[in-house]
Amino acid sequence: MDSSTFAQILQIAFDKRVSDIHFEVGDPPMFRARGHLIRSKLSNLTTKDTEFVASTVMEQHNRKLPEDMKEFDTSYTLTNVGRFRVSIFRQRGNIGVVMRTIPHSIASFEELKLPPVLGKISQASNGLVLVSGPTGNGKSTTLASMIKFINDTFQYNIITIEDPIEFLFTSSKSCVIQREIGIDTDTFSGAVRAAMRMNPDVIMVGEMRDLDTIDSCIKAAETGHLVFSTLHTHNAASTINRIVGYFPPDSQENVRHRLADIIVATVSIRLVRNKSDEGLIPVLEIMSATNTIKACIRDNHLEEIEQYIEKGRDEYHMQSMDQHLVQLCKDDVISLEEAKRISRSTDLERKLMYS
Question: Which fold has domain 3-102?
Answer without folding.
Answer: Beta-Lactamase (3.30.450)
